[in-house]
Amino acid sequence: MRAPTSIALLLLRVVLGVVFIAHGLQKLTQGGIAGTAQGFSQMGVPLPEIAAPAIIALEIGGGALLILGLASRILGALLAIDMIVAWGLVHAGSGFFAQDGGFEYVLVLAVVGAAIAVAGPGRFAVGAALSGVVRSRRQRRGFTPARA
């Protein structure tokens, strides 16, 4: 992967990770798990007692791992799904613009998450460095995986 593409993916990962960490911390500090579950219940989120801690953990932990570039494809997909669900349950009926409660913001977050899920973390990621170490060890032992 070329350096400019990897730099772009690094920027996307870091910004998306910071945004999700901030939102997860907001849920945790302003309402806690119980308050977030209550809010989720009012919004029609299924199983809010399970969804609240899961979403808080995804947003904080997933955001941090995304910044590092670990499990980026999986986390990008999970965060995109998180935003698609928020769109459907909360924002879809409020029009487009975020200032009116619309889906503009969650749409951008979902698309960035999906882009990371498809493109991967890029070269400047802990996950990429770790996979290079594993590949190097395999090659030293005589195991060279076939490349397409």
From TrEMBL:
Keyword Coiled coil tagged: no
UniProt membrane topology term: Multi-pass membrane protein
Localisation: Cell membrane
Major site of localization recorded for this protein: membrane
Keywords from the UniProt entry: Cell membrane, Membrane, Transmembrane, Transmembrane helix
GO CC aspect terms: plasma membrane
Origin: domain of life: Bacteria
Transmembrane segments annotated in the record for this chain: 50-71, 78-99, 105-134
Family matches, as Pfam families: DoxX
Keyword Cell membrane in record: yes
Listed PANTHER family: INNER MEMBRANE PROTEIN YPHA-RELATED, OXIDOREDUCTASE CATD-RELATED
Protein family per UniProt: Belongs to the DoxX family.
Protein name: DoxX family protein
Organism: Schumannella soli
